[in-house]
DNA sequence: TATATACCTATTGACATGGTAGGTAATTAG
DNA sequence: CTAATTACCTACCATGTCAATAGGTATATA
């Protein structure tokens, strides 16, 4: 609806990460369990978990007793990487994308510094906050 | 392409506001001139200018010698209102939209505080910066 | 061997974005 | 009064992304 919204992919991904941090103990947690707890369709959740595994944030194990689990400790994930993995780069304008080709207007573009500052602000924000911070509700004051 | 991108509507709107601040002197500036300087299609620019007039950020005058001009001084516009007018609220999740109906998960939603903090951060950022700041390249250090 | 699980490919409907087309109303210059 | 200029209005369209679904395959364990 509105363009400043975080996609469900990124939001669900974060919820999944939280869910695993809280429920994995020493076991693999099957998709079905996560889906039930989080009230997310199993099929849709699959596509999200696939991304997280592919990006190395989770490990998947097939077969009976299989499921998913974190590859690191909660304090070693940043919110930024979870979001960027599922939703793409945080760049607010094409000129600031990782692979951006130089813009011809660049030198006399008065807006660019605004987007650069904004970009730096949100990147830094999401970079500083770890998964553990989210679970404990720790935010910079 | 990627979901963190500011829409062209908001970006063009900002460029138009800058353009007018720099070129209006005491006259009304016709759409055609702005479109030419900014290299934006006239037809598309129309839809953006309509929004800005409707929102009270610009005045339009018809007929020969007509065009558009700012309704206030550049230092009296915030970037936030320009963006929100053209792109909608800055809320990153539905729960934080102005007219949001209460979410049943709200009380045990660990993510919500994250989005609230993020929302406050960017709202404050865009709120503090005026059109004049953009023109002069003044940003908080 | 049966069951549980992750993993893979493809498809769909809905919607927003970015942009276009053509016409109407108002104002001024001559 | 007429012609030119300009904003304003309604409608349309093509593309792409999002959110979600469907059905099948590979792998591990009990």
Question: How would you sum up this structure, described in words?
Answer:
The structure is a homodimer of 141-residue chains. The first copy, chain A, is mainly α and 141 residues long. Helix content of chain A is 49%, strand content 6%. The first copy, chain A, has a two-stranded antiparallel ribbon. In chain A, helix 2 (31-38) crosses helix 3 (42-54). The two termini of chain A are 31 Å apart. The mean pLDDT of chain A is 93. At the A-B interface, helix 1 and helix 5 of A face helix 1 and helix 5 of B. The structure holds a DNA duplex (30 and 30 nucleotides).
Q: How many alpha or pi helices of chain A?
A: 6
CATH fourth-tier homologous superfamily of chain A: Winged helix-like DNA-binding domain superfamily/Winged helix DNA-binding domain
Number of domains of chain A: 1
Beta-strand content bin of chain A: 5-15%
Distance between the ends of chain A:
31 Å
CATH A-level architecture of chain A: Orthogonal Bundle
Largest interface: A-B, 37 and 37 residues
Helix content of chain A: 40-55%
**How much is the average pLDDT of chain A?**
93
Total strands of chain A: 2
Q: Please state how the strands of the largest beta sheet of chain A are arranged side by side.
A: 1-2
Shape summary of chain A: elongated
Integer-rounded radius of gyration of chain A: 18 Å
- Write the element-wise H/E pattern of chain A from the N-terminal end onward: HHHEEHHH
**What structural class is derived from the secondary structure elements of chain A?**
mainly alpha
**Level-1 CATH class name of chain A:** Mainly Alpha
Query: How is the main sheet of chain A built?
Result: 2 strands, antiparallel
